Amino acid sequence: MSRNVLVVDDHHNVQTLLAEFLSGQGFEVTCASDGIEAFSVLEKQDIDLILLDIMMPSMDGYQFISKLRKESSIPVIMITAKQQENDLIKGFDLGADDYITKPFRMRELLVRMRAVLRRASPKIPQEAILTAGKLVVDKNKHEVLLDNDTVDLTPLEYSLLLTMMESHGQVIWRAALCVRLIENGFSGSEATLKIHVRNLRNKIEADPNQPDYIETVFGVGYRFAKEVL
Fold first, then answer.
1. Which pTM value belongs to this model?
2. Regarding beta strands 49-53 and 4-8, do their DSSP bridges make them parallel or antiparallel, or are they unpaired?
3. Which residues are paired to 136 by β-bridges?
4. Same domain, 63 and 99
5. Which among 61, 52, 102, 56 is positioned nearest to 81, based on CA atoms?
6. Cβ contacts of residue 58 below 8 Å, gap of 6+?
7. Same domain, 116 and 46
8. Is residue 229 assigned to a domain?
9. Cβ-count burial of 185 within 10 angstroms (0-12 exposed, 13-18 middle, 19+ buried)?
10. Long-range contacts of 184-193 (CB under 8 A, 24+ apart)
11. Are 77 and 116 in contact (CB under 8 A)?
12. Residues 70-123: pLDDT tens digits?
């Protein structure tokens, strides 16, 4: 299910840039030019996350957050050119969940958005053990078995494997997996991703050149081919 994001910024070029990027990442995006217009949107739509510029006419970001927090806990990420500690503290004291300073990288924004949305989402119990063919992942133990033998994976390899198994049968875009690299503190380049996928295949595939588990979808990304139970 797609998440609804409200972009509040008085610069239309910023609105357009964020709307195009986030729409391409699967988000539904609505834009507002100031806090007053943003509240009008909130009266009509269910919003999951707000990206909020601080310096705006009519009602600035601080005024918006202050009023919003009297009636809603919708997560807010401040987008600000201000980098003074007191300005950031003021935003957090009023109820902001995170911030990012201009100019920013889109991938960094995406990582911050997903982290905030995860923290805000109710915890849904998930199956602790995933099984695909001879491969078993125990999420409670953080353990991977192949034909009953332990497979030693790096934290990143484990994260990539878990991501693909939980989306088995679906194509995962390289960009989405690169974001997972960033979340785990590694370079998010596609060249780096290929290396980690290759290393993961060497550990779980009988023949890494003809993989049974992790298929390459050329020009797009990867797919976990086995059914996961």
1. 0.57
2. parallel
3. 131, 145
4. yes
5. 102
6. 34, 35, 36
7. yes
8. no
9. exposed
10. 184/155, 184/156, 184/159, 186/156, 188/107
11. yes
12. 988 899 998 887 666 677 778 888 888 888 888 888 888 888 888 888 877 765
- Answer for the pair 26, 2: CB distance below 8 angstroms, yes or no: yes
Look at the chain and count its residues.
229
Q: Does residue 115 share a domain with residue 10?
A: yes
Q: Which pair of tokens denotes residue 109? A: 């924004």
CB neighbours of 196 closer than 8 A, spacing ≥ 6? 154, 156, 157, 160, 181, 186
| Gyration radius from the chain CA atoms | 21
- Which distant-in-sequence residues (6+ apart) come within 8 Å of 208 by Cβ? 198, 201, 202
Residue 109: give the domain boundaries: 4-120
- Angle, vertex CA 37, rays to CA 33 and CA 39, nearest 5: 130
Instruction: Mark the ranges of the chain whose per-residue pLDDT is less than 70.
Output: 1, 82-85, 122-127, 180-181, 183-188
Structural domain count, the chain: 2
